[in-house]
């Protein structure tokens, strides 16, 4: 039971990679990549979790409270937002590819460029 | 780990699988929005409200909008060439 | 390589990766039994030291502020990269389309397809969404929120304008240079505050402003400032990204 979180993180990584490998559409491929990234978030937060811990916000809980690890949360929170702009860049590149090659199928692009 | 966390984890696992096996990009954009919300719920039950907020604004708003605008653009192009099947 | 062959190769590689993952993850402490000292220490010293109640944001904008600066510049770079990638295509086409500018939007059909209810609701929500974004970007040191989330919400106001069919009317005001300026100011502001720490004390990104008292909106010293410039940067970057994608749509309409 306690390893379920790790199992889900590993599963998201593997299924996302499967999607990337088998994709016929660059837009689909980019969303599969975002699943791969979600796996790192799940893994980080699962590692930093403490049983019975509260959220690390001391606005209304005493200073001595047991809290979950705040460092992994800080890492994840910035990455979630930054990842979105990287995704936007990838989408722009796939648009560009469509204009140049007339397709968003990675296989066809490869066969066009040789 | 409590039942809520286990449930959220399983839902996220299923949601991620859904995003990957959904081959129609338009439908996939919607599924990925749902996946983003599931992730946000997971972050909430893992006591990470900051991350959950990030994930909500990105996963449920920014990402689907960018995907839909991209798809709209691709579709307009395809309308120019009717022989390509939509 | 054929699809079947690639899939077979992937399955073999994935099996290997899965075995490695199982081996590696099994070595981690079970979920809920994390013993990392760093986070534990910060959770207990951050409030007395900084008077900011949200430890996650204390770490994001203070204890690991250099990290965040790196992330912020990744964001900056990808937004600028996107603009370059998409603008080159726009330049190719603008010459023959420029004179048809006014007739173009009816060709896309966007405003006429928008229902009156959606238009009114979209515009009515712009104000509240902006307020919500500013609220999130300014409260980071107290409660969950901060510049990263607030910035995206601020940029979401543009989506509402677009849905309301007023995007083209808005672009007449030429807001893009302002947005680019905001993005640049956000990135430069972060570095400037870091240098401020260098001047006031001895370290880059030193928290050199009085910390205030716990629970006060002005607590946390530079945390609130850094959160605000990050909000500016993120809002600028996402507004640019959304605007570029929306412009792409308009361009295709022009071509037809």
Structure description:
The complex is a heterotrimer of chains A (114), B (86) and C (256). With 114 residues, chain A is mostly helical. Helices cover 72% and strands 0% of the residues of chain A. The longest helix of chain A is centred in the last third of the chain and has 32 residues, at 70-101. Helix content of chain B is 84%, strand content 0%. Chain B has three helices and no strands. Chain B has helices at 3-21, 25-45, 49-80. In chain B, helix 1 packs antiparallel against helix 2. The longest helix of chain B is centred in the C-terminal third of the chain and has 32 residues, at 49-80. Chain C has 256 residues and is an all-alpha fold. Chain C has eleven helices and no strands. In chain C, helix 5 crosses helix 11. Chains in contact: A-B, A-C, B-C. At the A-C interface, helix 1, helix 2 and helix 3 of A face helix 1, helix 2, helix 3, helix 4 and helix 8 of C.
Label the structural class of chain B: mainly alpha
Radius of gyration of chain B, rounded?
Answer: 16 Å
Overall average pLDDT of chain B = 87
Which series of helices and strands of chain C comes N to C? HHHHHHHHHHH
- Helical content band of chain C: over 70%
Helix content of chain B: over 70%
Radius of gyration of chain C: 24 Å
The profile of the biggest β sheet of chain C is:
none
Distance between the termini of chain C: 38 Å
Q: List the uncertain runs of chain B.
A: 82-86
Low-confidence stretches of chain C: 94-111
- Element-level helix/strand string of chain B: HHH
